[in-house]
Amino acid sequence: MSHNRFPLGVILAIIAAVLGIVAYQNLEWVETEHDLGFSSKARQQPFLAAEQFLQPQDIGFDSINHFRTFDEPDLASTIPVDDTIMLMDAYGSISDRRAETLLTWVAAGGHLMVSTDNPYLKDVDHVRDPVFDLFSVERIRGYDDFNSDQLDTLETLDDLTGMNLIDRCDVLYAQDTFSFKNDDHQVEAHFITDDSLDGDGDVFGVIGEPGQYHMLQYQYGDGMISYLVSFKFWQNKNIGCLDHAYILAQLAPTAGNTLHVYYNHDYPNLFVILWRHFYAVVITATILLILWLWSRMSRFGPVRRGEQYAQRQILEHIRASAGFLWRMDKGESLIEQTRAEVRGLLRQRIQHIDRLSEAEQIRQLSQQLRITEDAVAVALFQPAPKDHAGFTHTIRALQHIKDKL
């Protein structure tokens, strides 16, 4: 039987091998790419692409999450004037003192870049900024056909729509076409906003047309201030579009120096917050005051003072029981029964108690039981009271002696 199976097994193996070879030769390898979006580091650092773009050019990139560096009067001792400082989301958030420190650094030869971006302010139209006030630079609201909200929506839904960075760049048309000094290269840019800038004074350089400037440059002392309408075109998602990276390379410091990016993550103090929301604070305080006054006026008539009852449950029980018996006209009987029980306990403890006079009994019991002589007299010797309060007082005194025994 095994002799007949061997050739069949060999034949099946050969057929399987041939089929495998044929199938392998007819396989078509297909490579696909899927955009997984930004890495977690890129999502945390919106200018990571700018940093990686400048590094091969030997330009340093430094990120700082506060403005406390500008509290130092001599900023040049910390940041060389050959470097460049860029203030992120800082419009309206720089104090006069810090602005003076920055401008002193610029006058010594530094380059400062600022923009009108500040996502922490609901309305920046009436916000004062000392750096912008220097040359009366202000933002002008625009109503172009570019819709930044639509672009942000596409960015949020890019995983569902299949939109990638290349598709995003196709949406961005050239708002401005220009060239830098001593450079014939035509530069195109879109600043991801419809707004523009306007300013006074002698302008050193501009991007845009009159009435629609997107960058204004002014010389200040030996240095330079560059006012941009927005820095969004240098973010990770936009820097690869048009000539945005080229513009950054032109405005960045020269090789061997550093671009210092300062983020507005300083929180205002409580007084500034209260002043900024002055009306809300006043309305809230008024409502709370009215509610407090209403709660104080909710009572009518004099305040009733609670009677100070003994807290021990046994005394409360005695009071209730005594009151019941008193209402049933059995008060005198209860006192006599209780006195008989207490005297029985006294005889067990003081065997000669009955041979003593009443006064001597009161004196000895007061000493041994550590209670007043009046309490002993009320409990054991005085006639049963006829009123409710006296009856209750006598019962309490008897119970007190009983507890001592």
Automatic annotation (TrEMBL):
Keywords assigned: Membrane, Transmembrane, Transmembrane helix
Transmembrane domains' residue ranges: 274-295
InterPro entries: DUF4350 (IPR025646)
Domain of life: Bacteria
Domain DUF4350 span(s) in chain numbering: 42-251
Name the record gives this protein: DUF4350 domain-containing protein
